[in-house]
Write a structure and sequence with these properties.
little secondary structure, elongated
């Protein structure tokens, strides 16, 4: 299925959308529950003000990202990384 220049509200339940590609797509206010995004790639993505709960991040690599205001379990990540990088070796 190809959606091009389309504005739609899509509900997908018990669906296999593996190998799908999303380019220049607005998914603001979307909700993802019980989804597998294993082995997916994300680039040039805005996740500002998003919340992640009960998420498996094992093996995830985060590089070249703006982490201003990012917290994990209430801990400011940028401050934690700065402290880690500045500790005596």
């Amino acid at each position: 299925m190809n959606l091009h220049n389309t504005k739609a509200h899509i509900s997908a339940d018990n669906a296999d959308l593996s190998h799908s590609t999303f380019t220049n797509v607005n998914l603001s206010h979307a909700s993802f529950t019980d989804c597998s995004l294993k082995n997916s790639a994300f680039s040039d993505i805005a996740l500002t003000n998003s919340t992640f709960t009960d998420i498996c991040l094992g093996g995830v690599a985060i590089t070249d990202c703006n982490i201003d205001g990012l917290t994990i379990d209430g801990i400011p990540v940028k401050a934690a990384l700065d402290a880690y990088r500045n500790q005596p070796k």
